[in-house]
């Protein structure tokens, strides 16, 4: 496991137990919700030739805001009248069931192990047009499960029923899961907490994604400090275009 030094960094377990904050629904007309709408538009425009059917959110290291950003983007996208499915593909530190207050007895891991059906794992949420697949119980071998042929077939089938699949994935630099999943989606977005992420770690994550020929759409800058405030309402989310490998 790579260990990039970062004096600001600590593992945050709050969202594991309580889910992440859905600013996009709590304050739909607020500044942060507007930022999420801008990100949604930027993501849509980042792939003009081919409409995106599946996107994956990851980051270089843990606790950088992947679940916060992917869940809020899912809510924002569904508000646009598109049928959206948020998949908790983080089989190690899952949060989607907590965030959307749904059951986690039958999720992705159960399906991949052959213990749940396609219909059983798709759950509606309180939001119109937004559905989720939770992680299911944490398996001993996440990378192996995520690398199976069964997941490819699942995504193909899901794409027939949903306008967009959004994957909340584990961090790149700690486990291979996100690299494996990056290959199955149309685009990857890196969540980068400004002032917290280690530059070398972000560069390493980008290289790891390019190595598996992932289509990097860009990066969402999280926790950008503005006007001396820090935290949600001082945060600024923007999509920075990464240079694509030709
Ligand atoms: N912009 C923000 N402002 C304030 N707090 C934030 C912001 N983004 C994330 N957080 C908080 O940071 C913590 C970690 O966020 P989150 O769970 O989204 O990260 P993650 O990358 O999904 O973590 P993990 O690696 O465990 O999956 C949570 O407590 C979340 O509420
Ligand atoms: Mg997470």
TrEMBL record:
Reaction(s) the record says it catalyses: L-tyrosyl-[protein] + ATP = O-phospho-L-tyrosyl-[protein] + ADP + H(+)
Keyword vocabulary terms for this entry: ATP-binding, Capsule biogenesis/degradation, Exopolysaccharide synthesis, Kinase, Nucleotide-binding, Transferase, Tyrosine-protein kinase
Known EC number: 2.7.10.2
Single Gene Ontology MF annotation: ATP binding
InterPro entries membership: Bact_polysacc_biosynth/exp, P-loop_NTPase, Wzc-like_C, YlxH/NBP35
Entry's Gene Ontology BP terms: polysaccharide biosynthetic process
Superkingdom per UniProt: Bacteria
GO annotations of cellular component type: plasma membrane
Pathway: Capsule biogenesis; capsule polysaccharide biosynthesis
CDD domains assigned: BY-kinase (cd05387)
Family: Belongs to the CpsD/CapB family.
Full protein name: non-specific protein-tyrosine kinase
Organism this protein belongs to: Companilactobacillus bobalius DSM 19674
